[in-house]
Amino acid sequence: MTHRHTADLAVVADLNGVRIDVPAVLQRLVDQADRGAHTSIGFPGAVDLDHSAVLARLGRRLWNNIGDPATDPGGVAHTKALERAVVAWVADTLAMPADDRWGYVTSGGTEGNLAALHAAHRRHPRAVVYHSTAAHYSIGKIVGIIGAPGIAVRARPDGEMDYAHLAAQIRRRRTRPAIVVATAGTTMTEAVDDTAEIGRVLATHDPGGYLHVDAALSGIPLALDGRLRLDPTSGIDSIAVSGHKFFGVPMPCGVVLIRVRARENGGGGSTHGGHIAYTGTPDTTISGSRCGLAAALLWHAIATHGREGHRWRAAEARRLAAYAVDRLTAAGWPAWRHPHAFTVVFPTPPAPVREKWLLATDGDLSHLICMPGVTRGQIDAFVTDLTASRSAPPIPRPRARPTPAS
Q1: Strands, E assignment, 15-74
Q2: Contact in structure between 196 and 163 (CB atoms under 8 Å)
Q3: Which of 62, 103, 183, 298 matches a 20 to 30 Å C-alpha distance to 172?
Q4: Across-strand partners of 255?
Q5: Within 13 Å, how many C-alpha atoms sit on residue 330's CB side?
Q6: pLDDT at 1 over 90
Q7: Please, which pLDDT band fits residue 276 given cuts at 50, 70 and 90?
């Protein structure tokens, strides 16, 4: 059914057509998204926040946040003041020192990771980048872009990094600095790597290193709980979070934060380009022009709910995830989740269920994600379809399970 609708849309959207019904094409897009909304529970995007007021007021012009977000006031139609407020709020929530932070609103987690790892590589040009096999696929891609050697570290069965393997791999390259990418919310299981343990490994490495956290999925909820902090004792040099996941912003975006000292190269100079004459702005970001509308949408989400409102959203999502684990397990599908995770992992359902429900699947494991806005009704409907499927649940491969979540 989905393939047929997609094919129909491609026909009516063909720009070489004699007559193009623009309103009909746009309506077709909305209808297509609406049809799949109820069964779309496998990928992280909150659906409980209404951003229409921002889009209605700001959606008719270009808002270009070109230049350095912290120092450049130039231009007219931009939202850099809101961008700075968003960066400050995220940094404050992470307990990052006010005198040791720099950041901007990115196009998403991938750009945030690229910005941080580019800075790390400029600071440590001989470094090897280490990341777990459960890290987001963008990390391996970024390692290739910046031209650094990369080493994949084993992940435990539950998705968390194998720290003994990390230590062994770093020891094998004892003369090279180490850039380690930790993950706060892995793609399949929402595992959180222990940055304190990684810090202990790096502390014994004479050439030094750099610790980046890809926290696109879980960074904001963990920070709201005080479980992820970038205070001076954390040893974390940079972090990237997503804006279209927990905040549900209707366009891919995110925030990257880098310590000021980590943005300096070995000679004490800035790792980024200088002043651009024709724009009259300093060039300090990966993207140059940045989406000012995304910054405004993030600012709106934060301003209308505040920390307590977002803490409540995270708590409700976790309660729903615990409910999903109970319902699936009672139905004979052994499910589990990490403590404080929205992600519920279970054996992969039969094909008819997967064709109806948009899940994330990797071999014999699948997951659903109880992002804010997902309802008990959706979980109940999914479990009903799963129970009605005539195949018995497969026996899951042996795996280490986390401590049951409260």
Answers
A1: none
A2: no
A3: 183
A4: 105, 241
A5: 10
A6: no
A7: confident
